[in-house]
Design brief:
The complex is a heterodimer of chains A (about 180) and B (about 240).
Chain A: H1 15-69, H2 71-92, H3 98-109, E1 113-121, E2 125-132, H4 135-147, E3 152-162, E4 168-176
Antiparallel strand pairs in A: 1-2, 2-4, 3-4
Chain B: H1 15-68, H2 71-84, H3 91-104, E1 108-114, E2 133-142, H4 144-155, E3 157-158, E4 162-169, E5 177-186, H5 206-216, E6 219-220
Parallel strand pairs in B: 3-6
Antiparallel strand pairs in B: 1-2, 2-5, 4-5
Classes of the chains: A alpha+beta (about 180), B alpha+beta (about 240).
Chain lengths: ~180, ~240
């Protein structure tokens, strides 16, 4: 029967070679420990992230539920915003004040001048035609019109013709400002 | 012939390196096939966490903004806006408004032309640049003072009335005359969706606030409520 000697050292390791082997062994164990620490750190990091993620998901669910409850308010606000923003160009654009223009023209035309045709657009272009009783009244009307910077800076006499009775038919173009 | 001699292969000298080599192999293999994908996932979770955090802050901000709004005030504002700018091409509303305005100011409507086209326009897409309009060509007879009153009231009535132009023939400033008016009624289909939940709540600007102040002063000639905005659970939260 063969004896087994557990204490047997196959080969005696000594000197530089033995020292090197021992250092490598220690280093490898150190490497293993560092590696395990890194893995444990990464695991902790992952677990923390996972925990935070779960919490955020719960908070998001809660906020979404609150938003769902507030949906009528949101729809009203969105609706209001849509309406108001759409009306900004329309209600801030410069358009003639029809009332003011007509009132002003009425005041000019009250003295011997009759305006019998008037075409006013939203762009402020006013074509008007009328009859002046005589040249003096007509000239006075035109002078007053030209002098009125508030109504229009641009007054163009498109046509005028003297009638047999001394009256004047005329048509004017004004670029209305008010 | 080459002969293998086991006795000449001495592996004992490698025995001290066996454990370190095994450790390195285990580290490399587990690092490659276990830890690396796992760390990749952790970074993915971190990235998702960053995105979710951002989303959460947007949701919280929006919820706070919504909760800070006074529902009574908002309902009042939305009602004024709905009266000023109907959501449909409501021909009957526009006709009744015109008739009411004319009657109030003793203007006689001689003729009225309108080409409404497709009436059911609630689903129509709104033009981004300009509001859709329903245009009326109205011939009316009356006196100058009545016309001036009509124009004044039209400027302060809801739904909004846009006088595009007027043409007066046979104008006698002291007497009765006829005039042609081009009158537009703007309308605007309802928004179709609220968008994503995290989308910021649209806030009204100061310019829009000024517009609202104008709308609030308009007189709704028909005197009826037009905005039953209720939670409906429908796809379009504005539909009712």
């Amino acid at each position: 029967m063969k004896d087994i000697n557990l204490l047997k050292v196959g080969r005696a390791v000594s000197g530089k070679e033995g020292e090197l082997a021992r250092k490598i062994k220690v280093a490898s164990f150190l490497l293993l420990i560092v590696y395990c620490l890194l893995v444990a750190g990464a695991l902790s990091f992952w677990l923390i992230l996972q925990g935070e993620s779960d919490q955020i998901v719960k908070k998001i669910d809660y906020q979404e539920q609150r938003l769902k409850d507030l949906e009528p308010v949101e729809s009203q606000q969105t609706f209001l915003k849509q309406r108001l923003s759409s009306l900004v160009p329309l209600l801030t654009e410069e358009a003639p004040d029809y009332q003011a223009v007509l009132s002003r023209l009425e005041s000019f035309a009250s003295e011997g001048v009759i305006l019998n045709q008037l075409d006013l657009t939203r762009q402020g272009e006013l074509n008007c035609g009328g009859i002046a009783a005589n040249a003096v009244v007509f000239a006075d009307f035109l002078e007053r019109l030209l002098a009125d910077d508030e109504l229009s800076e641009k007054v163009k006499l498109s046509s005028s013709s003297r009638q047999e009775d001394g009256s004047y038919d005329f048509s004017l173009f004004l670029d209305v400002k008010i | 012939m080459l002969k293998f001699k086991p006795s000449s292969l001495n592996l004992d000298k490698f025995r001290p390196f066996l454990v370190p080599v095994l450790i390195v192999v285990v580290i490399v293999l587990s690092g490659l096939f276990l830890v690396k994908p796992w760390i990749g996932k952790a970074f993915e979770v971190q990235e998702n966490l960053r995105k979710e955090g951002k989303r959460l802050s947007q949701l919280t901000e929006k919820t706070s903004a919504l909760e800070s709004l006074s529902q009574t005030d908002l309902a009042k504002r939305a009602d004024a806006a709905a009266k000023a700018l109907p959501s449909e091409k409501d021909l009957s509303l526009f006709l009744v408004t015109l008739r009411t305005l004319a009657t109030r100011n003793n203007l006689e409507i001689v003729s009225l032309q309108v080409s409404p086209g497709e009436i059911a326009s609630a689903s129509a897409e709104a033009n981004q640049e300009a509001l859709p309009l329903l245009s009326f060509q109205v011939k009316a007879g009356g006196y100058m003072n009545d016309l001036l009153e009509f124009l004044d009231q039209a400027a302060h009535s809801a739904p909004i009335i846009v006088v595009q132009g007027m043409d007066v023939e046979g104008l006698d400033l002291g007497g009765r005359f006829e005039l042609s008016l081009v009158i537009d009624f703007p309308f605007l289909p309802l928004p179709t969706s609220l968008g994503r939940p995290e989308k910021a709540l649209p806030q009204t600007t100061s310019q829009e606030e000024e517009i609202y102040q104008k709308l609030a002063q308009l007189e709704f000639l028909l005197g009826k409520e037009v905005l039953p905005l209720v939670p409906s659970g429908k796809e379009n939260p504005f539909a009712f």
